[in-house]
Design goal:
- By secondary structure, the protein is an alpha/beta fold.
- It has one domain: 3-Layer(aba) Sandwich (Rossmann fold).
- Strand 7, helix 7 and strand 8 form a beta-alpha-beta unit.
- Helix 4 packs parallel to helix 6 and helix 5 packs across helix 6.
- The radius of gyration is 18 Å and the shape is globular.
- It binds adenosine-5'-triphosphate and magnesium ion.
- The site of magnesium ion (MG) has 2 residues, from helix 2.
- Adenosine-5'-triphosphate binds next to strand 1, strand 2 and helix 2.
């Protein structure tokens, strides 16, 4: 079966342009309004992420890390500010367009894995590709490729409940990879894992980064923040510091 040519062309193009800004946030403000209470979750974020970069977001509970990741991943919209993703202005687009771009550009990895319990490993990884309207032969190739990459090719028929936490997270990584997104976004991907499995998932992300993936990861754990090239420190909805990991300089 011929690969989807427009998709593979887009993928190789993104490799060629490594080092250019993939993401640009300017003056991003997010205010939540609930019961007459205003929560200023983000108060003027400026951030650029280049193609091929591995950035971690650190900071205390409630400082706005998940809010920022939701905006980056087009799960939520900013109250104010501009967001350029892969050359497109995406801060104020409608829901349908947002969902379409999200499906193509973004791969998510969540703390709680978020696999669908009554779908097999294979079906979980396949689902976002089905939403995209990809034909079944290409879906099959992508699913197998992604599961092999995370070392879960031998568990296609298992259900999530039949896997360890570390294995579930590896399947979630495969699901994120299947669509060959421009960026992988991970919110505390090791939060529900013991240290051994956590390290294995971190090694996997580092390997994907070496192969060219652009990654933005939220983590509480300074040991894991060091896996990234650059750490952005948030406090009360603002970027207060950026540090570059010595081994990556
Ligand atoms: N949907 C929402 N409605 C109202 N307030 C919200 C909502 N989501 C987040 N907030 C508030 O915005 C602030 C930032 O929350 P966020 O979840 O981004 O923090 P975080 O840095 O990810 O924290 P944690 O490390 O605990 O996950 C918090 O004060 C939170 O209560
Ligand atoms: Mg959070």
């Amino acid at each position: 079966m011929e690969p989807n040519t427009s998709d593979s062309a887009q993928h190789s193009e993104s490799k060629i342009r490594n080092g250019e800004a993939l993401i640009k946030l300017e003056g991003i403000i997010k205010v939540f309004f609930t019961d007459e209470v205003e929560t200023h979750a983000l108060s003027g974020i400026h951030l650029e992420i280049k193609r091929g970069e591995y950035v971690s977001i650190a900071g205390p509970s409630g400082c706005g890390k998940s809010t920022m990741l939701s905006i980056l991943g087009l799960l939520d919209t900013p109250t104010e500010g501009t967001y350029i993703l892969n050359g497109n202005s995406v801060a104020n687009i409608g829901m349908a367009e947002r969902a379409r771009i999200r499906n193509r550009e973004v791969g998510f990895i969540f703390q709680s894995f978020n696999l669908i319990g009554d779908l097999t490993v294979y079906e979980n990884v396949e689902l976002p590709l089905t939403y995209r309207g990809m034909d079944s032969a290409e879906r099959k190739q992508r699913v197998h490729e992604a599961l092999e990459k995370v070392g879960m090719g031998h568990r296609v028929k298992h259900f999530p409940s039949q896997l360890s936490g570390g294995q579930q997270q590896r399947v979630a990584v495969a699901r994120a990879l299947g669509g060959k997104p421009s960026i992988l976004l991970a919110d505390e991907p090791t939060g529900n894992l013991d240290s051994k499995n956590g390290e294995a998932v971190m090694e996997l992300l580092r390997e994907l980064h070496r192969e060219g993936a652009t990654i933005c990861m939220v983590t509480h754990d300074p040991r894991f923040a060091r896996y990234a090239e650059r750490t952005v420190h948030l406090f009360d909805g603002r970027i207060v510091e950026e540090s570059v990991e010595a081994s990556n300089q």
